User: Fold Aminopeptidase N from Thalassovita litoralis.
Amino acid sequence: MKDAAPQTIYLSDYTPFGWTVESVHLTFRLAPTATRVISKIRFTPTPNAPKQAFFLHGEALTPIRCTIDGQQITPTFTDTGLTCDVPDTAFDWEAEVEISPATNTALEGLYMSNGMYCTQCEAEGFRKITFYPDRPDVMATFTVRIEGAEPVLLSNGNPIAQGDGWAEWHDPWPKPAYLFALVAGDLINHPDRFTTQSGRDVELNIWVRPGDQDKCAFGMEALKKSMKWDEDVYGREYDLDIFNIVAVDDFNMGAMENKGLNVFNSSCVLASPDTSTDLNFERIEAIIAHEYFHNWTGNRITCRDWFQLCLKEGLTVYRDSQFTADMRSEPVKRISDVIQLRARQFREDNGPLAHPVRPESFVEINNFYTATVYEKGAELIGMLKTLVGDDAYYKALDLYFTRHDGDAATIEDWLKVFEDATGRDLTQFKRWYSQAGTPRLSVSEAFTDGTYTVTFRQDTPPTPGQDVKDPRVIPIAVGLLNPNGDEVLPTTILEMTEVEQSFTFEGLATRPVPSILRGFSAPVILHRDSTNEERAFLLAHDTDPFNKWEAGRALARDGLIRMIRNGDAPDTSYLDSLTAVVRDDTLDPAFRALALGLPSQDDLAQTLFDMGNTPDPQAIWQALETLKQATAQHMQDLLPRIYAQYQVDGEYAPDAAQSGARALANAALGLLTRLDGGAQAQKQYDAADNMTQQLAAFACLLSAGNGDAATADFYDQWKHDRLVIDKWFTMQIVQADPDQAAAITRTLTAHPDFSMKNPNRFRATLGALAMNPAGFHHASGAGYAVLADWLIQLDPLNPQTTARMCSSFETWKRYDPDRQALIATQLDRILAQPGLSRDTREMVDRIRK
Ligand code: PHE
Ligand code: ZN
Assistant:
């Protein structure tokens, strides 16, 4: 087979499929290397559809037979599917194909994981199961018969019949093929029930491998809370008799919202205090909610084509963040989300992979499950809500659900609902979906005769393929404080629509201190010439928790930049302000823990680059080390008090209160370790009775260079638990001295527990290296080389995970010519691999440009 030039798909080329699929009947005869799939599909020509040849997708299928209305036919097969002549009227298609799940290492389509069969069809995996119009706008009801020796046989919808070695399922809700799922294995369930608001009794199950059954209770509670929350907040009720969740060890992503049968990466559902950290618990709760919420935003209303991915993902991320804010702390959730947004999405928007929230072309759709589509997509929903107000938002959502239930919809449909519900023109807002790049918002101010004027200017730097940017509508939440710290203007939304725009506030007795972009009301980079006195004032007095935190962050960043650029010493006034926050027991401990966090190495590198400097990863790392050491010394009297005071007694609970206390105490421990060499951390490690405490102490010991005994002990204690061993791999690399990080990574890839076939383990190792930026960007190039070596090895097995991990290289143009040359060498080496996957080629091509 020759390497066909990869084809670019364009949004503007969208045409509907020429046939309607009335129903799909599938029979699976499971066998590891020779599974038979028999499909019976009723096709009806769609009146007035554009004329087209009949084409069904199909990849890596061995056709056994194809018939139309019972007559054997001989289609023309290509690499991507088949074509054949079909009648002008409705007809019955039948095909039998053979596939080999046991050798499917790409984990797309039907594959095996630890002896269990499972599927992953989003985005285009169903075509690896049988011939089908594998596009999200083709929706049909599915009836599935599974024949196999496995004790548990699951598919979408409701069970209709079962016997020895077989089971039948029927899903009454029409769905696109990407939501199809099948699971078969020796599984144990954790059962429960939920009664919906209208009285429907729903059976709930979490299915796991034997041995994992004690790690399901938390996920089940999260599921029930999610079901209740979606009823209470969005009026959305569950719509089948049964809801199944299955945990799978080998999975490319976090989880998948298949109708009635969510499949989860086991790391995103299995939870127990011994093996999961507080952050794991919070993430598991959020992902369970996310997949559950997709039942309405994704499944009942799906996407017309994959360019509309943000329609379901942006909205569902927004919904899960609302849920987490309601279950836990709204400010803490917002601050954490913004940290992630800046770390992942701003980074993407600033580099060669920048793309609009709704892209207009792609080669491989799997490469567009990005922070931009997901997290920036969610920010757009948040901005819409801010602009129209809460009541109008929920009114628009009600209209969306009634108008589009059962549809494969578009961003145009979504915005039209808001226009119709609110009477607002969203033409300008739509630019947020079509323009890539993060707007820079600069601020200038004037005060005369009691009138305060604030002037904003927006600029978005060019991104690949988009040189010119039009002004966007930006909701800017502003509050004003007077110099004694009282709020004189509570949070007010300023709506910016021009390139440059001024807003005035009259009748002020004194020049106010503005608190701008409260709650991070828009995903922009704010440039404001502020003094450190003013930042310290806002850190002490701002009533908006996000901006209070942001003021501390700006102070820290400013001090670090001056340390790096000018060789300054750590700023003692910053340390004084921070100490005051940490000491203030009226503040939420979780907030104080966040305030103790510093801008990341990556954040500082981008900041320096934006200032016209070439970032030196080693110098950035060194400045952070120096500042942490100075912080520890500055707070040496306070730290033992904080550490002791926020120890949690009594039974472990992964709730916001306990995890906030642990986060603060462990932040204190990190600093204390710099003073005592790890004595306290060793005590905590030895006494720990939950993973949060154990892992935090382990990290401290490693960072102090004192981790050898704990490394051996941790492995010994947890070698039976794959998810904990992932942490063991990651922690050694993340906490490594930058000079050692690449070598430690290479050593760990030779460990008997390292495996390329398990994406979690691969990411825990090679993904961890990029989380040690000074190690990854080491001047020797050893970090680049070890990552490239392993990406080259993984690509033939698992293109999707390989391609995603190429983004570790996406910031390369920030660095000096020597580093750029080292990276270019690795990128070119990857591109030169014969048979390189389309996924990886697209990513490396875009990065290399
Ligand atoms: N749709 C999934 C989610 O966001 C993510 C996913 C994409 C999973 C592609 C697998 C494959 O919930
Ligand atoms: Zn999703």
